[in-house]
Amino acid sequence: MPCTKLLILPLLLVLACDGESTDTSGKDTADTAADTADTADTSDTGTDTGTDTGTETGDTADNPPIPESGYFGPPVVLVLADDGAGGAEVHLIDPTTGVASVVTGVTASPTATLGCAGKYAWVMSDAAIGINPREKAVAQTLALDSGFAPQAVFYQSPNLWFGGTGSASIVAFDEAGAAAGSVDLSSVADADGKPDVMGFLTGSAGVSAVLARVNRTSGAYEASGVAVLDLTGTGSLSSSGVVTGGNAGRDSVGTPLGVLMALEPHGGTGATLEIFDTSTLASGGVVLDLSGATFVGMTSGGNDGTIWIATKAGGIVTVDHYIADGTSIGTITTATSGDLLAVGPPNLWSGEGTSVLPYDMTTGVSGTAVDIGSTIYSMAACQPPPMIPDTGEEPPA
User: Fold this and answer.
1) Which sign does the torsion angle of CA 264, 265, 269, 271 carry?
2) pLDDT digits (tens, 9 = 90+) for 253-299
């Protein structure tokens, strides 16, 4: 309609001008009034603005549903570092900007572990401290039993689950922080009665717990294992099995082949990657043997079922990116100073002295160092799983 008026209005003006030379009976005044009425006609603009704005605002407010498991906060890299007073403080690095912020009100042990589950990033020692990365503030504190020694946290709606090396059970809390049950895993423990839960992950069998199975009394390592869990309701143990190696770390991942277990070196045994087949509940074999290399550290690739492992030779640290069959698909040269790696796309983050450096995962080129200013104890990265955008339309049948 607005385009039509622009085409017609000049024609009306021309006709009025033609009539003015012979006719003075007031038609000009009428024409002028008609023209003025046309100019004041803004009803189209008003209608379009009201309708479109209302619809668009409604669509924006239609947030996608909360995932059933995992972490669903913003991407963040966590750094646990010396606070100068015998404890540790937590720094949050925004992986998109490289800017670090200290979370106030957190005093943790230098041996605390880091994790990501539900809405929060977690610092776990005597208690589990949930940090809201958006607010950069403590959002929830959960009391754990003395000696629980937490190593891992996992969210399975509607509960948070914690596992450790000092308890035979994994324990649950609901979103309000109330105790919500436990699962006894003593039947899959080693000789000291504790299974040593090092991590939770999702894979072809659903949710699994990785078990280090270390006798904390004698120091002996038994074969590491996997417990397949049903975490609905109060939870239960579904099945389990073991692999050939020992000393499972916290960075195993789920893959289509099963659980890719990262076994850290101990004694005279080097680091290995081994597959646990969740369909046969048995080892699928060692896919990578690093017994001839000096192990530095490792981390999972986030949501892609890969693992990064840093080794040192001749004073040079290289970090290889491995897929489930043990094939390296990329190598980056770093100065990683310990088990300090975290994947925060598009970069691999490396702890180097008192700084954290981002390395482009494709090119290996390092970016600007983030100065932490004190000794770095540990690192982790929180990355939400990819989600299909909510368009407000029904999916195809």
Assistant:
1) positive
2) 998 889 999 999 988 889 999 999 999 999 999 999 998 899 999 99
- Spatial strand order of the sheet with 355-360 comes to 341-344, 347-352, 355-360, 370-371
Residue 131 to residue 121: CA distance in whole angstroms: 5
Which residue type occupies 328?
A: S
| DSSP assignments along 254-286, one per residue | EETTEEEEEE--BTTB--EEEEEETTTTEEEEE
With CA atoms as reference, report the closest residue to 121 among 100, 97, 139: 139
**Cβ pair 270, 308 in contact under 8 A:** no
- Minimal CA–CA distance to 171: which of 189, 197, 190? 197
Cβ neighbours for 210, distance < 8 A, ≥ 6 positions apart = 197, 198, 199, 200, 201, 224, 225, 226, 248, 250, 252, 259, 261
Q: What is the pLDDT of residue 51?
A: 45
**DSSP 8-state code for residue 51:** H
**Residue ranges of the chain whose pLDDT lies below 50:** 1-61, 394-397
Query: How many CB atoms lie under 10 A from the CB of residue 206?
Result: 15
Q: At what angle do helices 27-40 and 2-20 cross, to 10 degrees?
A: 170
CA 129 to centroid of chain Cα atoms: 17
So what's the pLDDT on residue 67? Answer: 77
Q: Which of 51, 56, 68, 177 is nearest to 122 (CA)?
A: 177
The position carrying tokens 């080693």 is 190
Sign, CA torsion 25/26/30/32: positive
**3-state SS record for 182-217:** EEECHHHCCCCCCCCEEEEEEECCEEEEEECCECCC
What are 211-244's pLDDT values in tens digits? 999 988 888 899 999 999 999 888 999 999 999 9
CA distances from 93 to 35, 47, 103, 353 (A): 62, 46, 11, 16
Task: Give the global pTM.
Answer: 0.81
Task: Say how many C-beta atoms besides its own lie within 10 A of residue 339's C-beta.
Answer: 19
CA–CA separation, 24 vs 238, rounded Å?
A: 98
Contact in structure between 279 and 258 (CB atoms under 8 Å): yes
